[in-house]
Amino acid sequence: MEWPRPAEGTHLFMLGEEAVLYSHRAQELYSFNTAAAVIWCNLELGKTRAATTSVLARALRSSPDQALAHIEACFAQWAALGILTGSERPATARSPEACVIALPGPRPDLPPLQETQAMTERHYRLLTTGVRVRYQSDSQIDWVHPVLAHLEAPATDCTTTVAVTSNGDGHCIYVDDRPYGRCAGLDRLAPYVKAALWQAAIRNHRYFLHIHAGVVSDGQSLILLPAPSGRGKSTLTAGLVHAGFQFFSDEVALLEEGTFQAVPVPVSFCVKSAAWDLLGPLFPELLGLSAHQRPDGKVVRYLLPPPRSLPTDLDRSLPVRRVIFPWYEPTSTTKLRSLSKAEALSRLLSQCLAVPLDLDPERVAALVHWISGVEAHELIMSSLNDALALIGGVRTASVSK
């Protein structure tokens, strides 16, 4: 086979014995294990087939034939990705991604907004965005305001208006006069209004990466808890807040460019029905809260963060010192496992919902440098108490360094 070369615009960043490859043409990152990193480094250095095979055979403690077979398998994969010379794919124009809080189904076909003089206003602030919510009825306020009450703010500098109207078919939600959602019952209304407020706030905030994660603080630094929905992220975040950590978010970490610090986005805890009995003893008020049905069909209760858990300065960002990836497994033993930096970065980016800025080698280099200084663990958990004890041990060990 012809010995290839790295495609133009590819950049390898070492992370210990592993690496991350960035393709500027594709605007993508690839995680490389040690063997892949060795092969790529030899390609960059222009080493021959024989030299590369010999180096890899020594690294793997394998025969030259086994090493060559491994090299050829990597080449086939890399050619499919378009990161070797001769295999490049046409560069596609990329529109920087903005975060959209997706609601199931198409946008509703609502009649034009018709407000009345009797509508009642409440005002909220999230990040730097003021949002005016106009309700047509007291019953709408009774269902929605308790979910947002801790975000209530003076009626100044509101840049977004959410209007909630009702008719014989249910309730209609408009954002800046544009149709946003429709729901049949009051128990379905709060998720729409919360999503509209959240989306407006994030749209007006400059950040580099939007990570789906819980976030707590010890007052000086942050722990990120990235995980897919249903893996215990919100439950663990709530447990840590009960244990004394400050609450930053149970949904999102907005990592700033360069510093990779994050500011609080303290929307209410979204507690799914499966976690009500588990968190009830920690937060007795939870079981008395109204149940809401989200557009995805899940039934949730919205728990306000305890006032003592909120940072005193909601505009102050803090550095991330630890990333813990929770994974609820009811039949497993609760345990922490250290992750390599390359695996941690790969897992973190799997929970990245938006990248509003274009990638370039400098931004990727900063990202790799940042993750190299962050402690990273996987947390398999079946017991919340055991998980909290393990994280407390990580916290103590870090402080004593």
Structural key phrases:
401 residues, alpha+beta, eight-stranded mixed β-sheet, five-stranded mixed β-sheet, 10 helices, elongated
State the helix count.
10
Give the distance, in angstroms, between the N- and C-terminal Cα atoms: 51 Å
Uncertain residue ranges: 395-401
| Total beta strands | 19
The secondary-structure class comes to alpha+beta
Molecular shape = elongated
Percent in strands: 25-35%
The biggest beta sheet reads: 8 strands, mixed
Q: What is the succession of H and E elements?
A: EEEHHHEEHEEEHEEHEEEHEEEEHEHEH
Helical amount? 25-40%
Q: Kindly report the average pLDDT value.
A: 91
**Spatial extent as radius of gyration:** 24 Å
Detail the topology: elements first, then pairings:
Elements: E1 10-15, E2 18-23, E3 28-32, H1 34-44, H2 49-60, H3 64-81, E4 120-126, E5 129-135, H4 138-148, E6 158-167, E7 170-175, E8 178-183, H5 189-203, E9 209-217, E10 222-226, H6 233-242, E11 246-249, E12 252-255, E13 269-272, H7 276-279, E14 292-293, E15 299-303, E16 320-328, E17 335-338, H8 341-350, E18 352-354, H9 361-372, E19 375-381, H10 384-400
Parallel strand pairs: 5-6, 10-16, 16-19
Antiparallel strand pairs: 1-2, 2-3, 4-5, 6-7, 7-8, 9-10, 9-11, 9-12, 9-18, 13-15, 14-15, 17-19
Helix pairs in contact: 1-2, 2-3, 4-5, 6-10
